[in-house]
Amino acid sequence: MVSSIGKRAALVLALVLCGGVPRASGQVFLGRIDVIVKDATGHALPGVKVTISAPYDAVQTSDDGGEAHFFNLPLQSYVITATLTGFATTTTSDVPVVAGAATTVAVTMRPPANPLEAPPPPASVMVDAAHATITTRLEPQQFQDIPHSRDLWTWLPTVATVFTDRVNVGSAESGHQSLFIAKGAPPSDNAWALDGVPVTDMGAPGTSPFFYDVDSPAEFAVTTGGADVRNATPGVQAQVVLKSGGAAPHGGARFYFENDHLQTVNISDELALELGSPTGNSNRIDTYSEYGFDLGGPLLENHVWVWGTVNKTNVTALTFNDLTDEVQAHNYALKADGILTDTIRGNFTFFEDARTENGRGAGVLRTAESAWNVADPARYYKGEGRFIFGPRWVATARGAYITDAFTMTPAGGLTKDYFIDDAGTAHNSYYEFQTTRPQRYFAADTTAIAGRNAINAGFSYRETPIDNLTTYPASHIVTIWNGHPNVIAQVSRDLQQNTNARYISGFARDTFSFDRLTVTGGIRLERQSSSLKAATVPAVAGFETLLPAVTAAARSDVYLWTNLTPRAAVAYAFGSTHRVTARGSYSLFASQLPGAQAAFASPIQPAFVAYNAVDANNDGVAQASELALSSGIQSSAGFDVRNPSSTTPVNRVGDTHAPLTHEWTVGVDADLPGNVSVTATLTHRRMVDQLWSPLIGVRAPQYAPAGTLTGTLPEGGSFSVPLFALRPAFVPVGGGLESVNRPGYHQQYVGFEVGATKRLSNHWMAHAAFSANSWREYFDDALASIVDPTKAPAPSALRPFAGPQVDGGAVVQLADGTGQSSVFMVAPKYQLAIDGMLNLPFGFDIAGSFLTRPGYAEPFFRSNVDTGDPLGLKTVLLTPAVDTFRLPQVALLNARLEKKFVFGSAKIAIDFDVFNALNSDTVLGRQYDARMTGVLPFGQVLEIMNPRIARLGFRLVF
Q1: How far apart are CA 534 and CA 605, in angstroms?
Q2: pLDDT value at position 114?
Q3: How large a percentage of the chain has pLDDT more than 90?
Q4: CB 266 within 8 A of CB 945
């Protein structure tokens, strides 16, 4: 492996260190302007005074190549002025700066105007012609003018290849984060950054510790692939860049409102009766409100610029059974940029997201008393220094600290045991979860321009301690009905797992440009570790012999991954104006190590012993006196039942390394007349060495046939599924698992995406993104890559090694969706997103957005199947593949009518938005468990698309 990586690195360096104006930027949240000045004959003009204005003035003198470079620029629109004795002064306005990219401005200067000569051509402005990454940039104009729910997760499906686990109608889901996937990368490889600082919650990798109102970002950049060495993982790179102060005061205020009176009904009377809906309505919005303001501008002219915002959001959603889930959120932000000297600049940013939620998870599967009440404050502090050593050399250093701690407490309190009935619904209470997840970060990087090369290098250090505590209520007996009054009683021990993770990385890259050709290459070095900290859990009262108190000792570097990953990209521009670019890239990515991964090796694991019981007093729960102790333990997990006091972990960690993704892309980008740009990309990925948790020492040959599960489903017809059971001689101690890289197995993603953008001109703008996707898994050596041949719908917490296990079958990701039902995510065969806006006379605008894709998978299964396996009951897939059956096609249409009033530089807009304009009742979740009968039987609809709802909005922008 090392030899192979070394050969790739050598190839990359040979490609890029061969000697053009470089177009790559050294920052991911700032931008750069490169100015090229020539005379009318095309010769470079040295000695030209080039000035940029707004938010502050900066001056450079063009070099012998006619070039001037401006680094580390906040995201604004700038004015470029070029002056030289004997030539007419040229001015170019509205030059955009975008995060992590360079804007190239080609200026042609002529002698003072002669009436007989043609006027000089306007400056050519081009953003990031090299296209080393596949990035979609969403900006304030889109957030304001297109009718969407007001959170960034709703915008993710507008990016080609990105799909999410829910459909958000009218901000009904804006109090929750969506799980999202793109190009075969697991959700745990998604990464979030705020103003250049990685903020991904490493306790739940792929999520953000913050929610963001859509009025705060100057840009939301979403990268799904490409050869940028600053991007650590193959997952979606979601980068939020906050607004900043400018040369002139600017800001705005907003207010949005929805309630049930602005909402229709899209549920049939029959379905309402079947679900027992007390109001005859489906899942829907009760109330939604949002208000806030932001203000920015110069505090000390040409020295300090500030921007700040305050925002409050309330989302109250109702479920089928009329339960309430209410989220209240407050966002505060303050950002200050300053110039200490001509060569030293600084930045400070504060961001806070404080939220509470009452009723999280409430629905048909969680009664009100078993839903969680959540408190989740998170804060971000960042300081930064930018140092300019000369016109071709700059450096930046930044540090950040993040506080994040939240608690999820069951509404029913911790004095009652909870039970799950035969319909799969939880009652009485639930478990409590508490966590603290601070983050510490420091990084530095530098960019230098040498001839035709731009060399960028940097390093970073990040530490993410995570302390988690799970507490079970009352007697710690969790009762699972199994044909009531027969029940399964799981006596569960509390769980405390404390870890600390460190991420150290360095990168170097070179961008070489010569006329039409741009070659970018680099190398990334990463060291990721996850360590155990000390922890203790108490014994379970009444069961101290089997579930005694346990203490876990600290242990360093349980996981330690070191990777060297090369990247290379080539772009070639065609035409006299370089408006068409062909490109290709190769990248090797290493997956990110979950911060709490070391908990896998702790002696404190999710632990329980299960007994058969009969609920003799019919109160729903099993008391200790009702347990059939004489029949013995039916199953256990998380400890050695033969030696319960042992502090030796039942799990073990092998010699693991980071999962790897090989990515190849080819594509073309074109800027067309009429402010239209088009991009198309073909991506191939091969993912190997996935982290896997099989039973210790157990593979398929240790299982024996255990009969066949047969039957007939109302939907899907007859089934006949072979069952297998582990031979007793091979049962690992405590059902222990081992952590290894999965042998004889790989995944493959092949996708095509095309996007078209019409920038606002001639009174209209539009954007369309289409993708076709295939994400499959392959069992190259089934004997080594499969544990239990019994097919399951998806991996689970107790059986992470299970799954559909179809060679060439779809990869499935299990998600909670909205909490109403489980969502089995497979890559959509296609997805189309379109949005646009048209200016009408008299200050009216109309706008709309449309999203369509195939429905989620319907993997019909049966739970609690007894195969005679000594490790307990199983969940068995009843369909040939996980995606044999699918839910109906999703199609969401939103529309807007807007009236604008313009007063100089200020604008007032009154919006009337309609979400789910077609009032679709598309099914988003069902009961897939064939064992379920009664209130929520197999096939029962659990969730449909929220009904049509209108939103009233008021916006002031200046």
Answers
A1: 14
A2: 64
A3: 74
A4: yes
* Non-local CB neighbours of 320 within 8 Å, separated by 6+ positions: 275, 277, 282, 283, 363, 364, 820, 942, 943
pLDDT above 80: residue 819? no
> Which is nearest to 650 in space by CA: 552, 728, 523, 544?
552
d(CA 398, CA 385): 6
Confidence at residue 725, expressed as pLDDT on a 0 to 100 scale: 97
Q: With a cut of 60, say whether residue 1 has pLDDT above it.
A: no
pLDDT tens sequence across 67-80: 888 877 888 888 99
Distances from the Cα of 290 to the Cα of 153, 285, 311, 318, 894, angstroms: 17, 14, 7, 18, 19
Asked if the peptide bond before residue 606 counts as cis, ω within 30 degrees of 0, the response is no
**Bridge partners of 178?**
none
The per-residue pLDDT for range 148-206, each reduced to its tens digit, is: 999 999 999 999 999 999 999 999 999 999 999 999 999 999 999 999 999 999 999 99
Structure token digits, residue 828: 């959509």
pLDDT tens profile 269-280 = 888 887 778 888
Residue burial 754-790, b: 16+ Cβ < 10 Å; e: rest: bbbbbeeeeeebbbbbbbbbebbbebeeeeebbbbbb
Burial code (b: 16+ CB inside 10 Å, e: under 16) for 510-545 equals bbbbeeeebbbbbbbebebbbbbbebebebbeebee
**Could you tell me which of 650, 748, 750, 745 has the C-alpha nearest to residue 691?**
745
Q: What is the pTM of this model?
A: 0.90
**In this structure, is the dihedral angle defined by the CA atoms of residues 543, 545, 547 and 551, taken in order, positive or negative?**
positive
Burial of 697 by CB count in 10 Å (0-12 exposed, 13-18 middle, 19+ buried)? exposed
The conformation of residue 157, written as its DSSP 8-state character, comes to G
Name the E strands within 591-702: 608-614, 635-637, 652-653, 660-672, 676-688, 691-692
* Dist CA 286 CA 565 (whole Å): 49
Domains assigned to the chain:
25-127 (2.60.40.1120), 145-248+270-957 (2.40.170.20)
Better-predicted residue by pLDDT, 87 or 817 = 87
Write the DSSP assignment of 450-464 as a string of letters.
ETTEEEEEEEEEEEE
Q: Mean pLDDT across the chain, nearest whole number?
A: 91
Output the CA–CA distances (angstroms, integers) from residue 947 to 260, 298, 818, 847, in the order listed.
Answer: 10, 45, 15, 20
Mean pLDDT confidence for 448-475 = 94
Nearest-CA neighbor of 315 among 291, 353, 282, 288?
Answer: 288
The pLDDT tens digits for 118-136 are: 566 666 666 665 567 899 9
Sign of the alpha-carbon torsion through 207, 213, 218, 222 = positive
